[in-house]
Automatic annotation (TrEMBL):
InterPro entries: NAD(P)-bd_dom_sf, RCK_C, RCK_C_sf, RCK_N, Trk_Ktr_HKT_K-transport. SUPFAM superfamilies: NAD(P)-binding Rossmann-fold domains (SSF51735), TrkA C-terminal domain-like (SSF116726). GO terms for biological process: potassium ion transport. It comes from candidate division WOR-3 bacterium. Residues 1-118 form the RCK N-terminal domain. One of its GO terms (molecular function) is monoatomic cation transmembrane transporter activity. PANTHER family: KTR SYSTEM POTASSIUM UPTAKE PROTEIN C (PTHR43833:SF7), POTASSIUM CHANNEL PROTEIN 2-RELATED-RELATED (PTHR43833). This is TrkA family potassium uptake protein. Residues 135-218 form the RCK C-terminal domain.
Amino acid sequence: MKQFVVIGLGNFGYTVATRLHQIGHQVLAADSNATRVEHTKDLVTQAVIIDAKDKSALAEVVTDTIDAAVVGLGDSVEASLLCVLYLKELGVKRIIAKASSDDHGRILESIGTSEVIYPERDSALRVAEKLNAPTSVIDYIELSPDYSIIDVATPDDFVGKTLKQLALPKKQGILVIAVRNVMKGGEIQLLPPADYKFEPDSIITVIGRYEDLNKLTI
């Protein structure tokens, strides 16, 4: 079990905090808005009202023993920057912060933020990529400008054949990392072996170069 502090309980911070607690971690959630704190308090370990621009207030709830702090104050650049600065001065080693713009992100990086997140931009890019992909693509994750992961309905010409027979890495430059059987309640086969035989009504998760994945979905 890890310990996290999430500061700023807008949609981004609320989702991060409640999900971390849901999967078993200790989460202290903080916001200056009493309504947001009240809305979150039963879904995390502890929720407190705090002004992120007040270093002494932060020092009362944040210690250098936490595994990471998440700053979701992208709507207030001043509060976001001061909060990150104070967290660093309090000895927090890993700080992940939401940025509302490229300039905001660059300043966060310049003061030592471990990781800067652009949730709105990333979501928009993901939507654009999904719209650009063939309709058979169910989900899409870009790993880099060259490589992606997609969920796609198992092609008809795969059904009844094994991975070994298809030789996808050699012939198509792609790798199947999971198969989900829709007719068996979503049963998942991770890293299917070479003798795995594809069935109809299944979804495969595939990693590869964009151009190779695109051939798979044509």
